[in-house]
Specification:
The protein is mainly β. The chain is built from no helices and 11 strands. The strands form 2 sheets. Strands 2, 4, 5, 6, 9, 10 and 11 form a 7-stranded mixed β-sheet that branches. It has a 4-stranded antiparallel β-sheet with strand order 1-3-8-7, with no helix packed on it. The chain is globular, with a radius of gyration of 14 Å. The protein starts with a strand and ends with a strand.
């Protein structure tokens, strides 16, 4: 079955960087739109960035210019490079795989990112 496993979260100081990775298995990775979402305590899960099967990217306004999403179809991985991190970026970050044509949608277990001095 489909499985998404995130890694790379942790504690970082404001202004620092982290790189999240998500390894996918059990799906035809190359045809899926891959995304990163986040959820802070007491708030709803929100979209951070997505990358389509053709490599088009979309970013939430609050991360434009700071975060970059990329994918490696040969390795079935999607990454999120996060720079200039702010305290408000603190959240659990989730990897998502979607193939809307068939209504397939999968989530990882999440990885905690904490930005604090």
């Amino acid at each position: 079955q489909a499985q998404l496993v995130e890694s790379g979260g942790g504690l970082v100081q404001p202004g620092g960087s982290l790189r999240l990775s998500c390894a996918a298995s059990g799906i035809i990775f190359s045809i899926y739109t891959m995304g990163w979402y986040r959820q802070a305590p007491g708030l709803q899960r929100e979209l951070v960035a997505i990358i389509t099967s053709t490599g088009r990217t979309y970013y939430a306004d609050f991360v434009k210019g700071r975060f970059a999403i990329s994918r490696d179809n040969a390795k079935n991985t999607v990454s999120l490079q996060m720079n200039s991190l702010k305290a408000e970026d603190t959240a659990v970050y989730y990897c998502n795989a979607e193939f809307s044509t068939k209504g397939f949608n999968y989530w990882g277990q999440g990885t905690q990112v904490t930005v604090s001095s």
